[in-house]
Design brief:
There is one protein chain. The chain starts with a strand and ends in an 18-residue tail after the last strand. The chain is of the alpha/beta class. Helix 10 crosses helix 11 and helix 14 (509-523) runs parallel beside helix 15 (578-588). The radius of gyration is 25 Å and the shape is globular. Strands 24-22-21-20-19-16-15-25 form an eight-stranded parallel sheet. It has a six-stranded mixed sheet with strand order 1-5-4-8-14-11, with no helix packed on it. It has a four-stranded antiparallel sheet with strand order 2-3-7-6, with no helix packed on it.
Length: 635
């Protein structure tokens, strides 16, 4: 337990803008938004963990603020909010809980799950817990700002028609790369290493899309099982790069993840590669009403979360993760927009992929293209110019599937392209009109709104679900290792095992599977994430870290939860067969072809794309069950 002292440290009023901790030559300004609290305490921690509490006496425009002379970069801090604890009214202030700064640029430490991090008392959820959580939660860190640099983005920015997106898990991609020094593997520095960048350049990708790099924590039930949320879709800090991916933090520099991330971005830009972030603004790591109180819940629960109007104790959940951020509240909207702008201007990224994006447009419950969030994005001079990609579905609503309904400035993961092409390559009959519409840019979804073919981000496999190799090796998912009796993850994988489930010693099957993988890799280049349009299909191409070479996940088709230091879920693996070694070469070919063939990069739908009819068509390899066809044998 750390020592705590309420100190009469001399402070100045400071400013309510900007939010967060802002360093100046004489001290630091602290500002945190909360309309629910009737008081706010700033908590400073020394290196031994001793806590000094400073009441914040100034309040303006919904923001508590104070300027503390002498505080510099590296200072650990947090907040305690005093005020009503009334779950029946949706308010959950509890000064016993140390809270993270929503605008913290870096965090240190992690969560120790237990009764101390819960805002309510054991046995009575309507009564506040008096257990102090300071010893069980991370600290926010003061980070000094740097002058905003003027960047010549023309050196690495590509048009959507020329963009090839490669989905990357920072740790997984670098953890076993033989060319990356051991001390840098699994980190931002590893991804910025020349060996990693050379591989990306060799594949011909123009943009990396990083799976979540915001500070996140695993769900409590996973920790109890000795597992973790490997992908990181459980954000707690929207301004803070993950300390888990920092070689500098490993080496003892507590806020080194910030400069390390910037250096990685600079290295990728120097190679002509854009950096996109997968962002999770649909929910936070605090979970449902029984979850921990770490930040947003304790500061201003009604402002940050959508509450059930019939019982504000509970949250509206359109994400399947226990809560939904309240994108209809000005406080939350400002948080989201400030975060996006910060990553673009200070951290120099080039765009975003929005996880479960419809959740951001539900300020009144239904998906609304004229929502406040979309309006703010469209008129923001910084954010509107970035690459913006939506995952156009969320969970459990009548209108959860919103493909084709996003504003013109957005691009969308095209799930219909994925399903049609998977059926095509596993030799299931596909309607001619459906196939043509997907293969030629999905004009049936986009042309009426005068959106271009590049509104579609064409995909076949992503981080969720099967890898490309597993797509031709399994008929059903095998998520037993996740400890949920194989109930987690979708059963709609549209895969084909080529006659035997999983690994097999049957002489012909491995070659047949490799052949199908190469077919898809060559035809829909590259084999992976936004399983890209090939040299013919219009749309924004992309790829996952799968074809490098023959990545396998043993039939797992859901978010994977490896425990300890196992990093075999999303990374380079040792080639198993000559077909594996040849796969990267198959992937390199089509990008120059796309550039030569203008039809693959056209900006408008073609006149022959409005095909109708239901006649079934199959690929030339539909004889695969009895032997592959003609020229395809040589791919």
């Amino acid at each position: 337990m750390t020592a705590t002292a309420m100190m009469a440290i001399e402070t100045l009023p400071g400013s309510h803008f900007p939010l967060g901790a802002t360093v100046s030559p004489t001290g630091t300004n602290f500002a945190v938004a909360s309309g629910a609290a009737d008081g706010m305490i700033l908590c400073l921690f020394d290196r031994a963990g001793a806590e000094t509490q400073i009441p914040m006496r100034d309040y303006d425009a919904g923001v508590w603020h104070a300027f503390v002379p002498g505080v510099t970069a590296g200072q650990a801090y947090g907040y305690r909010a005093t005020g009503p604890y009334a779950p029946a009214r949706g308010v959950r202030c509890n000064p016993a809980k140390l809270l993270l700064d929503p605008y913290a640029r870096a965090l240190s430490g992690t969560v120790a799950f237990g009764p101390a991090v819960l805002g309510y008392s054991a046995g009575n959820q309507d009564a506040p817990s008096d257990a102090d959580s300071a010893a069980s939660v991370p600290r926010s860190l003061v980070v000094a700002g740097e002058p905003v640099r003027r960047l010549d983005r023309a050196n690495w920015i590509h048009s959507y028609a020329d963009t090839v997106i490669y989905e990357v898990h920072v740790k997984g991609f670098t953890m076993r790369h033989p060319g990356i020094p051991a001390e840098l593997r699994g980190t931002f520095a590893g991804l910025g290493h020349e060996a990693a960048i050379a591989h990306l350049v060799d594949l011909g990708v123009t943009a990396v899309e990083l799976l979540p790099v915001h500070e996140s924590i695993p769900e409590a039930f996973l920790v109890q099982r000795g597992l973790t949320n490997y992908w990181g879709y459980n954000t707690i800090g929207y301004f803070a790069p993950s300390q888990a991916y920092s070689a500098a933090v490993r080496a003892g520099h507590p806020h080194g993840q910030v400069t390390e991330f910037k250096a990685m971005v600079d290295a990728l830009h120097a190679a002509g590669i854009e950096v996109l972030l997968d962002v999770v603004f649909n929910h936070t790591a605090e979970g449902n009403d029984l979850g921990p109180t770490l930040c947003y819940r304790g500061l201003d629960n009604p402002a940050y979360y959508r509450l059930d109007g019939s019982d504000p104790r509970h949250y509206i959940d359109t994400t399947g993760c226990g809560n939904s951020l309240n994108a209809g509240d000005p406080v939350t909207l400002q948080l989201i927009m400030d975060s996006l702008r910060y990553w673009l201007t200070d951290m120099h990224v080039d765009g975003f992929r929005f996880d479960l994006a419809p959740a951001l447009a539900r300020q009144e419950g239904e998906f609304e293209m004229r929502s406040a969030f979309f309006d703010l994005v469209s008129q923001d001079p910084v954010v509107s110019r970035a690459k913006l990609i939506a995952e156009p579905w969320d969970v459990g609503q009548m209108d959860s599937y919103d493909l084709g309904r996003f504003p013109p400035v957005w691009r969308e993961w095209n799930g219909k392209y994925r399903d049609t092409m998977r059926d095509f390559w596993r030799s299931h009959p596909v309607g001619l009109g459906q196939f043509a519409a997907r293969f030629c840019g999905s004009s049936d979804m986009y042309a009426r709104a005068r959106r271009r073919p590049t509104a579609s981000v064409n995909l076949i496999t992503v981080h969720d679900g099967f890898t490309l190799h597993d797509l031709v090796s399994y008929d059903a998912k095998h998520n037993e290792a996740n400890g949920e009796a194989n109930h987690d993850g979708t059963d709609d994988n549209r895969s084909w095992n080529c006659g035997a489930e999983g690994p097999t010693d049957e002489r012909l099957l491995p070659g047949q599977r490799d052949h199908l993988v190469r077919l898809v890799a060559a035809r829909h280049w590259p084999a992976g994430f936004h399983q890209a349009a090939d040299r013919v299909a219009p749309g924004a191409p992309g790829v996952a870290p799968q074809p490098v070479p023959g990545r396998r996940r043993s039939g797992r088709a859901a978010l994977v939860y490896p425990g300890g230091h196992r990093d075999d879920r999303c990374q380079l693996v040792r080639p198993e067969r000559p077909g594996d070694r040849a796969l990267p070469g198959r992937i390199r070919r089509p990008r120059p072809g796309r550039r030569r063939h203008v039809v693959a990069r056209r900006r408008l739908p073609g006149p022959g794309e409005r095909l109708v009819g239901s006649a079934g068509i199959r690929p030339a390899c539909h004889q695969a069950r009895g032997g592959l066809a003609g020229r395809d044998r040589h791919l």
